[in-house]
Design goal:
By secondary structure, the protein is α/β, with parallel strands linked by helices. It has 15 helices and 19 strands.
């Protein structure tokens, strides 16, 4: 197998941990670039101790930050304002000089980024390949645990496990309200139980790509905030430029655009934000309500052909240069629209697993209703359900939907609160709930 074809299911005896850095050369960045980054931090924050500067840079003070500060002092770009005897150079208070301010402003014209030191993209790419081997293989027992809250047919259930194990792509389709998004979120709960490392930011050709995102990434338990800063550190010894997170589960919907799948350059701040699929590397990217995006489905699908086939993505800098990055993402397309209206046979062939999440049977609907009433504290009875099915489904030729029991029970609760009575599955309350909920189209 080539690197890009490596199975994501193979276990890894020694988990990936970013090795600590102890010399400037270990960072993979030039001294001049690191000087500019620290000067920008001084420019925005004013006075900093050596230890605080190290925390802002996410680099160790001894051997690296002390060397950067020493070089800035020699060039009269920073100066010591105060020192505490006996505590060492890390406790010295440093301030930027007039010459340092001029140099910082020049650096800010090139990029406003002033955060944790980025990691060269080559190191990130290698880390993703290494961590792809650390995923846990899914068994039937595991699937029953993560899908225990859902009622699915056995045939559908048996197809979901191999699809999740593939780590490549899944096309979930079927009528609205039958649990496609719930299935994908259950997948997400599984990946979130596993951890991985990602850098705060990436460095390529002098440009910075912000990767860690507090909205889309959840910190692993070992993470803690550095007091007085917005930066993070992991308990234990490793390269502090990296953060330990739960494997990502990122969901996008109608807001997804083609531009959002490439590097997003901020013209004001002059650095990049990583696209959704890069932030989801090592985890799952759910494209919910596929086909309802502002961009044409065909254009969106064409964007995924190379990554899905080769497990490599190509992103474009604003200079026009293309960069290669691993595509270690399980992409889940979820849609209520008929597949024939969205994709052609050629693209369906590239999607590893196609799974229809259909309407529940009467028995499955009954089980869902029982679970929901128990959860919401509504006494269940078969007579009430039989009345509901006969009057509002069979007589009206209405399709069963897995979401209906939840919504109808919510209606029962609303009505009971209004009438100041206990909720129950009486014919009167079922009539009122159904008439308020169903609309004949």
């Amino acid at each position: 197998m080539t690197v890009t074809q490596r199975s994501p299911l193979a276990t890894q005896s020694a988990p990936f941990i970013p090795r600590p850095v102890s010399r400037l050369e270990d960072t993979g960045l030039s001294l001049l670039w690191l000087q500019d980054l620290l000067l920008k931090i001084f420019y925005f924050q004013g006075y900093l101790s050596g230890f605080r500067a190290a925390e802002e840079l996410a680099l160790p003070f001894a051997g690296i930050v002390d060397q950067i500060l020493e070089s800035l002092k020699r060039e009269k770009l920073v100066e010591i304002k105060s020192s505490q005897m006996g505590l060492g150079e890390g406790a010295y208070q440093y301030a930027i000089t007039g010459a340092g301010i001029l140099r910082a402003r020049e650096a800010l014209e090139r990029s406003q980024y002033a955060g944790p030191t980025p990691v060269p993209i080559e190191a990130y790419n290698e880390s993703i390949r290494n961590q792809s081997r650390g995923r846990v293989a899914i068994t039937s027992r595991t699937m029953r645990q993560i899908l225990s809250q859902l009622v699915l047919s056995e045939s559908t259930f048996q197809r979901l496990g191999p699809a999740l194990n593939s780590g490549t792509s899944i096309f979930l389709y079927g009528p609205p309200g039958d649990g496609k998004t719930s299935v994908a979120k259950a997948f997400g709960s599984l990946v979130l139980s596993q951890t991985m490392y990602i850098p705060h930011a990436l460095y390529l050709d002098g440009q910075v790509v912000k990767l860690y995102d507090s909205v889309n990434h959840q910190l692993a338990p070992a993470e803690e905030a550095i007091p007085g800063t917005g930066n993070l550190r992991t308990v234990g010894r490793h390269d502090p430029r990296w953060v330990k997170i739960r494997r990502p589960f990122i969901m996008v919907g109608g807001e997804l655009t083609l531009a959002g799948l490439d590097l997003v350059f901020d013209d004001t701040n002059k650095f990049y934000e990583a696209p959704f699929q890069v932030k989801a590397n090592g985890g799952i990217l759910l494209i919910d309500d596929f086909g309802r995006q502002q961009v044409r489905p065909r254009d969106l699908l064409n964007r995924w052909i190379v990554p899905l086939e080769n497990r490599v993505d190509y992103l474009t800098l604003h200079t026009g240069r293309k960069i290669e990055i691993p595509f270690d993402v399980l992409v889940v397309f979820s849609t209520n629209l008929p597949p024939r209206d969205l994709v052609d046979e050629a693209f369906l062939r590239r999607l590893r697993h196609k799974i229809e999440i259909g309407d529940p049977s009467f028995e499955e609907y009954r089980e869902i209703f029982q679970r929901v009433t128990q959860q919401k504290g509504i006494p269940y009875n078969d007579q009430g359900l039989a009345y509901l099915l006969q009057e509002y489904y069979i007589k009206r030729n209405r399709k069963l939907r897995a979401s209906h029991p939840r919504d109808l029970c919510d209606q029962l609760l609303d009505i009971a609160r209004y009438l100041s009575v206990s909720p129950q599955m009486s014919t009167e309350m079922i009539d009122r709930a159904s008439q308020a909920y169903f609309v004949d189209i």
